[in-house]
Amino acid sequence: MQSADRPETRLATRLAFLIAGFGLACWAPLVPFAKARLGVDDGVLGILLLCLGLGSVAAMLATGMLSARYGSKPIIIAGGLGLALTLPILTIASTPFTLGITLAVFGASLGSLDVAMNIHAVEVEKGAGRPLMSGFHALFSIGGFIGSLLVTLLLSVHAGPLVATLLSSALMVLAMVVAWPRLLRTVPSEDAPLFAIPRSFVLLLAVLAAITFLVEGAILDWSALLLTTQGRVEASHGGLGYMLFAIAMTAGRLAGDTITAKLGDRAIMLWGGLVAVAGFVVLLLSPIAILAMSGFLLIGLGASNIVPVLFRKGGTQTVMPAGLAVAAITMCGYAGVLIGPASVGFVANHVGLPGSFWMLAILLCAAPLCAGIVTRPQGQEEANAHRSYRSVDT
């Protein structure tokens, strides 16, 4: 395998994260156009959007298997190009069936890219011998901002959805062309298991990822309603909460590698989790609107580097192959995003929306409570467990 500690490989990894965030964000402004073009109601639209999630989850499972055998490079290339090629088709699909199929392919491209780029990031970080994961994840957020901004601007000047997506796809293809020769080429492992059930340490990482992503998804979908129903802000300003959260999370990840190098993973998990939980307390108990809004900043800053730590530990643990572990963590995190809004709504029906946000705060307490377990040195028993996985080869 070529050296992972090179500026070229770090650039390729950053481009992969940028493409993933960019491609996903380009679709968001197109949803109203798709609904109007097909003339479907909200129920049918919800089913169509579910196709994207189902495609992503199926691809994540397959990517864990394939990356264990063939490496992450071909999957990153296929996923990135798949996003670029299917994005314009989303704007011309003329029936619910064709849009559903295209969304499933689009989701599969995103899901496979998501898992493969994290596996690649683990290898690059290992080669560099210093924290890099937070910076990589920050590029996903930056890509999302650029993608949504670009498509929104093009649509606002009446460029049309197809023209907007063709230009966006061209930029993604260009980025993939730059990244392609710089991605790591790993030696295929013929005896690597194609499937392994997560357990013990990896299962804990996956659960923590699901909780953290659940919090992020819930804030995205419910923060505006929380602020407006409590009379903190007017309806027109309801999006300020998530905006502050997203800005703080991106800033935290941009500075995360430097902070992690100085303080270590355990301190990031412990103090980051405590700051995020404190943000919920400030948000829910502050009588002053401006002070309550600062809670979103604390939540974003505190939670920003928890997921990068989880992926780092998933890639370096010895319980199971790194590719399968990263795939399991990614799948559980994505499941958290999918079930987050629904679970918050279910709890809100019984105890109110503030009560559901208290539930999120309680769940997030798992991060600081498990900081010592997640970051402790692994023992011989875990190495033995890894060897037992090699017999599960399909």
Order of helices and strands: HHHHHHHHHHHHHHHHH
Low-confidence segments, given as residue ranges, are 380-394
- What portion of residues is helical? over 70%
Instruction: Count every helix, treating DSSP H or I runs of 4 or more residues as helices.
Output: 17
What would you call the structural class?
mainly alpha
CATH class wording of the largest domain: Mainly Alpha
Quote the average pLDDT: 85
What would CATH call the architecture of the largest domain?
Up-down Bundle
Estimate the global geometry from the Cα principal axes.
Answer: globular
- Note the gap between the termini: 25 Å
Give the count of structural domains.
2
Count of β-strands: 0
Question: What value does the Rg take, in angstroms?
Answer: 21 Å
Please, could you describe this protein's structure?
This is Sugar phosphate permease. It comes from Rhizobium lusitanum. With 394 residues, the chain is an all-alpha fold. It has helices at 7-27, 31-38, 42-70, 73-86, 96-128, 133-156, 161-179, 200-229, 240-263, 265-285, 289-303, 306-316, 322-351, 353-364, 366-369, 371-375, 380-389. Helix 8 (200-229) runs antiparallel to helix 14 and helix 13 runs antiparallel to helix 14. The chain is globular, with a radius of gyration of 21 Å.
Quick description:
Helix content is 79%, strand content 0%. The protein is mainly alpha-helical and 394 residues long.
